[in-house]
Amino acid sequence: MTSEAKQQNLRLLEATAGMTANQRLVVMLYALHPTDRSGAVLETAAQLAQLVGMAPPVFSRTRKQVIGLGWLEETEKIGHIKYYRLTPGRLGERVVVPLRRAT
């Protein structure tokens, strides 16, 4: 892990200090888990719950709370399965790509 990645993780922990332990765990899971190009974690709630040792209903309920707090957003839905990503910009990242003149 690079020094920059460690600093980002520390900023994330600091930013989530007022959340419950389960909420922070869900945020960290989405922040650290491999993602697709859009930033979505392509694992089901059941798979993610198992990964962190949480019961699936508890994980789903906690994820809904984290979504309500603005930390996660839905990226796509395939069938009945929804996929989520960490909300861009929660840690002050630049999320707007500057326009450039076409050549």
Fold and architecture overview:
This is Replication initiation protein, RepL2. It comes from Streptomyces brasiliensis. This protein is α+β, with helices and mostly antiparallel strands and 103 residues long. It has a single domain, classed as Arc Repressor Mutant, subunit A, CATH 1.10.10.10. Helices cover 45% and strands 13% of the residues. It is built from four helices and two strands; from the N terminus they run ααααββ. The protein has helices at 3-15, 21-32, 45-52, 56-68; strands spanning 72-78, 81-86. It has a two-stranded antiparallel ribbon. A hairpin with a 2-residue loop joins strand 1 (72-78) and strand 2. Helix 2 packs across helix 4. The longest helix is centred in the first third of the chain and has 13 residues, at 3-15. It is globular and about 50 Å long. The relative contact order is 0.15. The model has no long low-confidence stretch (mean pLDDT 86).
Which descriptors apply to this entry?
103 residues; alpha+beta; Arc Repressor Mutant, subunit A; two-stranded antiparallel sheet; 4 helices; 2 strands; 45% helix; globular; Replication initiation protein, RepL2
Question: How many separate domains?
Answer: 1
* Fraction of residues in β-strands: 5-15%
Distance N terminus to C terminus? 39 Å
Radius of gyration, rounded? Answer: 15 Å
Q: Work out the helicity level.
A: 40-55%
> What is the CATH homology-level superfamily?
Winged helix-like DNA-binding domain superfamily/Winged helix DNA-binding domain
- The low-pLDDT segments are none
Q: What is the chain-wise order of helices and strands?
A: HHHHEE
- The CATH class is Mainly Alpha
Tell me which CATH architecture applies here. Answer: Orthogonal Bundle
Shape: globular
Beta strand count: 2
Mind summarizing the main beta sheet?
A: 2 strands, antiparallel
